[in-house]
Amino acid sequence: MESLRKYFSHGAVGLIFGQTIGLFISTLFMGIKIMPILVFTVAWSIFGFYTGLLWNKGLKFGAIGIISGTLGGLIWYYLINPPSSIWGFGFILPGFLFGLFSLISAILINKINIKNAILFIGIAFSGIIISILLNYSSTLKDKFTGVMPPLIGFFSFLTSMITLGGLICIGLYYILGSSSANENRLKNTFTKLGKIVSVIWILFMFAFALGASHDAGYFIKKVNEPEFFVVVDAGEIDRYPYFAKAINDIEKGRIIEYSGAVPREEWRALMTLLDDQKKCRSIGKGNCFVKINNSFYEISFWTA
Q1: Transmembrane stretches, by residue range (predicted)?
Q2: Is the four-CA dihedral 295, 37, 163, 208 of positive or negative sign?
Q3: 75 contact partners, CB below 8 Å, separation of at least 6
Q4: Global pTM value
Q5: Which one, of 28, 53, 39, 20, lies nearest residue 190 by Cα?
Q6: Contacts of 126 (CB under 8 A, 6+ apart)
Q7: Of the chain's two ends, which shows fewer C-beta atoms within 10 Å, N or C?
Q8: Is the Cα torsion angle 32, 80, 275, 233 positive or negative in sign?
């Protein structure tokens, strides 16, 4: 049991470590189209390398993480077409791919039997299901006010990352066996760094959640003509000054995309306006497509 706790904690730290670096990257490349894909790639490559070091297979599992993160980002961003947020479910898809590719890798080198395969699938993919349910709980935050919404968002995301990373790592234990006893400076340094960064991130985000109000904002980008959209009169958008300025800046080429906080009153008023339209939501994924003059825009509403 002590061994399982060790693997679970390493997997949890590895994923939090990777996500922290990935989210930091997102602040450097905000507004760049490939930003979500880059974030997934960085996050899961670090997770793969971190957990792989337990078995002295850091490069191998780092490569699996790069493939899983990149492919997951491409699928999520271009095929599934979610709201343009890197939080939540977007991080879980690469986890599914990481588990799948790890299993295939073990099968190819004959390092697995039927019993261990079933255990791996059950453990690793239960982490994915649990993480999906935990992320869904973040939708409850709009039912509260004050400090509760950011706290709910923080704890649901943190718990899902701990569960997903921890159970995937336990799954790897069942297909790879006990980790190598060989210690080296890289392994010790990288695992210690992961723990330090993870603790700092948790404390920082918790403090931020405690001090945060129920912020709200838009993510807006120009798109080609979608299948479903709402026609918004150009004069009507003047009622929403933050939204109008973002559209104007995009049209004039000052920015590629807009992401920022807005007054809660404007946020809710615009969402209510668009929600009244039958064709606003894109297959329930939380993003709206609107036509203003002859241009089309995708609008995602976010809260913190």
Answers
A1: 7-28, 34-54, 61-80, 86-109, 116-134, 154-176, 196-214
A2: negative
A3: 93
A4: 0.69
A5: 53
A6: 167
A7: N
A8: positive
